[in-house]
Amino acid sequence: NKRISQNSSMKAETDNKCYCFGKPRVCSVCLTRPAQVASRAGTPGYRAPEVLFKYPHQTP
């Protein structure tokens, strides 16, 4: 029984491979995956001093 459950779990993992990369569609495997979360870089709410002082010659 244990060996059967291991084989079925391994098969389920191999069935979840995605082959839609680079194609103009999204497969059902990708649609069922959870969304990825990434933290935003930088300091939230930061404004450069030239913006705060409304300096006319700001750096690009």
TrEMBL record:
Domain of life according to the entry: Eukaryota
Name under which the protein is recorded: Protein kinase domain-containing protein
Species of provenance: Bracon brevicornis
Lineage: Eukaryota, Metazoa, Ecdysozoa, Arthropoda, Hexapoda
